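ingest -> validate -> predict -> emit
validate: passed (alphabet ok, no gaps, 261 aa)
predict: started
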Amino acid sequence: MLFREIRQQGFTGKEGILKNYLRPFKPQQCEPVVHFKTPAGQQLQIDFTTIRRGRFKLKAFVATLGFSRAGYVRFSEYERQEGWLTGIEAALDYFGGVPRELLFDNAKYIMIERDAYVEGAHRWNAKLLEMAKDYGFKLKACRPYRAKTKGKVERFNGYLKGSFITPLAASLKQAGLVLDVDVANGHIGPWLEDVANQRVHGTTGEKPALLLVSERLSLQPLPSGVNTRQTVNRQTTRYAMPMESLQHPLSVYDQLLEIRP
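emit:
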């Protein structure tokens, strides 16, 4: 009907040409975003993210509790088996308990072979299996090509880079210093306590730190006799990062860092 009307207006081309031209202007039907509510104490989502600042690269182990959205971060130079295991151990100690399951993607240091035995029965890293037995959590893997399954921790990754890494790198640059693993780990504890876990979360409408208080009641207790490493995120550093530096838009930090596309 539309093509006929356009022909009457003097268009002499073929209908296919017209459809190809109009296709970009056709309203797109977006898939609705579904938020999966996770019961308290049920799930901890875990990821390793890469942070690049010029020629420098950091790796960050990131863990987010599904109910409270409380986050934990530990930086390293490389993504290795030890980084995963130490990060899990420290995160559970930081949160003060053990969730019923840990959700991973298909990282090669954690999952040796997906569906190795039957569908859904994966061959996991042996040391991770030992840790799961000691702590009492189950291992769960994201389904392939389902990026939103681990969305809680992946959204925290973006927040970490924008709210912590960029301001800190800008402040250090002004002082003639470089952001490295030790400096990042020295600053991350106060940022988690005073900024990340104190913000009002966009989905829950609550501060993660407040929800964590109630979620701890649903976490399993930490096992006695397990040598937890609890000092990483409680350190301070001699390099000061003014709190007011967290209040400016990211464009200010981009200018300070002389970031070019």
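Strands lie at 43-53, 56-65, 71-76, 101-104, 111-118, 121-124, 138-141.
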